[in-house]
Amino acid sequence: MILLIAAGGIFYLFFRQLFSGDYPRRGVDYEAKVPEERIGGINRPDKTFSRSTEKPGRIEELLSIADESLEKGDNLEAKKALQSALILDENNPEILRRLGVVYMNMNDYSDARKTYEKLLELDPNDDLAHGSLANALHKLGEEEAALREHHEALRLDPDYAPHHYNYANTLYDLGRREEALAEYRKALELDSDLKEAKKMIEELSR
């Protein structure tokens, strides 16, 4: 329970930081900061990183170090901890998911892509991995593949607002403004706390 409360605190602090600063014109993709920028959030606790309630072993300790480092913005330290954890369990989805976040934070989109593809090898129905892979592919300029991954994420969980928001961001970058507007509206409909979606709706409605 203590670990769950701590994890909740990390997400709250990040959300407060996320919505308090200056942003690129079309908003920031969800999924690419700390564990994981509304990879669940307040209204979708099923999307948060899982943490063991048992006495922590070495992997759990390394995950805790990574989470604390991410909260502080220290991606290099988080990367070291996660790579050490991978030596112990190379197929652990919680390690891989966090490592993907770190790679995205460090603009290492190629390694982020490989990490999310590894997650999908382990579980092809991981909608979060599909959404994250879409963001990495978009950063790499592989737009058709990115759109396919967005569509798959939405197929697997059409009620998760960040999937719609990230898809909207990609559409916006591609100049498909009407489609982007529809997706921003859907994201806001699903989660009224998405202030960036509201901002983009206002901009695109002018």
What can you see in these coordinates?
The chain has 206 residues and is mainly alpha-helical. The N terminus is likely disordered.
Spatial gap, N to C terminus:
47 Å
Relative helix content = 55-70%
Number of helices: 10
What portion of residues belong to β-strands?
under 5%
| Sheet having the most strands | none
Instruction: Count all strands and give the number.
Output: 0
**Mean pLDDT rating:** 83
* Helix and strand element order: HHHHHHHHHH
User: Unreliable runs, pLDDT <50, ≥5 residues?
Assistant: 2-25, 34-42
Structural class label: mainly alpha
Radius of gyration, taken over Cα atoms and rounded to an integer in Å: 16 Å
* Inertia-based shape: elongated
Short description:
The protein has 206 residues and is mainly α.
Identify the notable features of this structure and list them briefly.
disordered N terminus; mainly alpha; elongated
List the helices and strands and how they pair.
Blueprint: H1 2-18, H2 58-72, H3 75-88, H4 93-105, H5 109-122, H6 127-139, H7 143-156, H8 161-173, H9 177-190, H10 195-204
Helix pairs in contact: 2-3, 2-4, 3-4, 4-5, 5-6, 6-7, 6-8, 7-8, 8-9, 9-10
